[in-house]
Specification:
By secondary structure, this protein is mainly alpha-helical. It has one domain: Up-down Bundle (Growth Hormone, Chain: A). The longest helix has about 30 residues. It comes from Deinococcus roseus.
């Protein structure tokens, strides 16, 4: 009889933090930094909405933030395959810190305008082109392959904890001391993540097998795209991700719309709404971390649940129903995205890790400008509820088609 004990769910949830010092340093630094980032995002969206009374202007600022990714994001993968991921992140985090400091300075001196916020959002967007794929690759290098799914899910807990704490703190600060303090706190919050990256031990990172890079960036990019969309295990997840990301993951725009157009609340109410969404997202991330490996049915169930939850939010005119809908939206959002992220990384070969991470980040982030503009204009035209119903229904359709494609692939006999 074997004496081995089964791994308990709680032990499995935090396995990567216990086993890997480099991952622990990356995780700890981002905990504080991401709270500051979400605090700044919430403050910017609310300030623009108050200055202009236009959801379309919030959508435009979001488009400025993610626009550079839409143009240059796919080049981040080939570049990341050539660069040191840890050093790249150090540089990008320092630049992002300077952007936050500039916003704080402009706010405290009374010179902060929508044009300035759009311009700085554009600069942050350029930083994301390298930062996002570099972070994904660094997570992959910080843990063994068997623990990647757990590490990705734990990384999502950072972002989703920040979705609770950042906007909640933002609502209080906006109502009491103003946006400048939100931006200053974010600038200071970058220091721990930079220090953690510097302290990581490169010799303890798990190297990826990389082919010799003799081709041009464009040729490498083309190879990565062909690999992703000609590999059956990657094709369906990326197509579903494209639909969901384009229409459903524009929370920088949709959450202010819930606060201002559906519930007609103030800055504190906006912070609470964002916190409820973040609470669901955090629970989803912790649930994902307990799973032994990502499964296609879990991924598609997350997409389906996300779509239905958005439809529910669209019907909300009272805080309780909106809160339930947003909590479920956050939960399904994280289940879906963490499962998709871990799945495509595990199914990609080492030499394509940077390009697959970049493609995932590109679809996840780079499609936001078009979606944000669409959602913002729908709400500005008096169709705030439609701005939730339409994305929700499209996510349901994408999940259904993904399920059919998965079932069809399973019935095809292997050669």
């Amino acid at each position: 009889m074997s004496s081995a004990r089964p791994v308990q769910p709680l032990q499995r949830t935090f396995a990567s933090l216990k086993r890997y010092r480099n991952y622990r340093l990356l995780f700890q630094g981002q905990v504080i930094s991401q709270i500051g980032t979400k605090l700044q995002d919430a403050a910017q969206a609310w300030v623009v909405l108050q200055l202009t009374q236009s959801p379309a202007e919030v959508g435009l600022m979001t488009a400025c933030l993610f626009g550079p990714y839409a143009v240059f994001g796919l080049l981040g993968g080939p570049l990341t395959d050539r660069l040191d991921a840890r050093k790249t992140m150090v540089v990008t985090q320092i630049i992002a810190m300077l952007c936050a400091a500039m916003l704080a300075l402009l706010s405290f001196t009374g010179h902060l305008t929508v044009l300035w916020m759009d311009g700085i959002a554009l600069m942050r967007g350029l930083v994301l082109v390298l930062n996002n794929p570099a972070r994904q690759v660094l997570i992959r290098q910080s843990v063994e392959r068997s623990d990647l799914s757990n590490a990705v899910a734990l990384n999502s807990t950072i972002f989703n904890s920040a979705r609770i704490l950042g906007p909640s703190l933002g609502g209080v600060l906006l109502a009491s001391v103003g946006a400048g303090w939100c931006f200053l706190i974010n600038a200071l919050a970058f220091l721990p993540v930079v220090w953690g990256l510097i302290r990581m031990n490169p010799e303890e990172l798990f190297p990826l097998k990389k082919s010799v890079q003799k081709e041009s960036l464009i040729k490498q990019l083309n190879q990565g795209l062909c690999y992703a969309f000609q590999t059956p295990e990657l094709q369906m997840p990326f197509i579903v991700l494209l639909v969901v990301s384009l229409f459903c993951l524009n929370f920088n725009v949709s959450l202010p719309i819930v606060a201002s157009h559906l519930l007609h609340t103030d800055a504190v109410g906006f912070g609470l709404i964002s916190a409820v969404f973040g609470g669901g997202a955090l629970l989803g991330a912790l649930t994902s971390a307990t799973l032994s490996k990502p499964r296609t049915r879990t991924m598609l169930a997350g997409a389906l649940g996300l779509g239905l939850s958005l439809v529910l939010v669209g019907f909300s005119s009272q805080a309780l129903l909106a809160g339930i809908g947003l909590f479920l939206t956050g939960f399904c959002f994280t289940i879906y995205t963490t499962t998709t992220n871990a799945s495509v990384q595990l199914k990609a070969s080492d030499e394509y890790q940077g390009r697959i991470a970049s493609l995932y980040a590109y679809i996840f982030t780079g499609t936001n400008p078009l979606g944000a503009l669409l959602i913002g204009h729908l709400a500005s035209a008096g169709n705030a509820r439609l701005s939730f119903w339409l994305p929700g229904l499209l996510a349901v359709v994408a999940a259904g088609l993904g399920h059919l494609a998965h079932q069809k692939r399973k019935t095809i006999p292997a050669n």
